[in-house]
Amino acid sequence: MLLIHCPYCEQDLPELEFAYAGEAHIARPADPSKLTDEEWRDFLFIRTNPKGVHFERWRHVNGCARFFNAVRETVGDKFLATYRADEPRPDISSLTGDAK
């Protein structure tokens, strides 16, 4: 069973407690009414889908109900870190040991 750490509840809980909420750190348009149809489509639907480290947004739906961010390695489906939504993106090299 995959366990996910909720940074608000400070507990490792089963994946069933959580809901995936898309890619993390997406910049919202300052003035959505000025976007072209193509730009609006790209904002809503086009996301990265890397093989490797990915920054994701999750929600603890069966607990505190808060959104948080996670760093997940997609090949092995392993969570490297979770952090509160108001915290900055962690440095990947500190999590993976890579010098990138």
Large-scale geometry = globular
CATH first level: which class?
A: Alpha Beta
What count of structural domains?
Answer: 1
Query: Could you list the spans in which at least 5 consecutive residues all have pLDDT below 50?
Result: none
Number of helices, counting only DSSP H or I runs of 4 residues or more? 2
Placed side by side, the strands forming the largest sheet appear as 3-4-5-6
Whole-number mean pLDDT: 92
At the fold tier of CATH, the topology name is Folate-binding fold
Order of helix and strand elements from N to C terminus: EEEHEEEH
Structure notes:
A hairpin with a 4-residue loop joins strand 5 (67-73) and strand 6. The protein is built from two helices and six strands. The chain has helices at residues 37-45, 92-96, and strands spanning 3-6, 11-14, 19-23, 53-59, 67-73, 78-84. By secondary structure, the chain is α+β, with helices and mostly antiparallel strands. It has one domain (3-96): Folate-binding superfamily (Folate-binding fold), CATH 3.30.2270.10.
Quick overview of this protein structure:
It is built from two helices and six strands; from the N terminus they run E-E-E-H-E-E-E-H. It is α+β, with helices and mostly antiparallel strands. The chain has a single domain (3-96), classed as 2-Layer Sandwich (Folate-binding fold), CATH 3.30.2270.
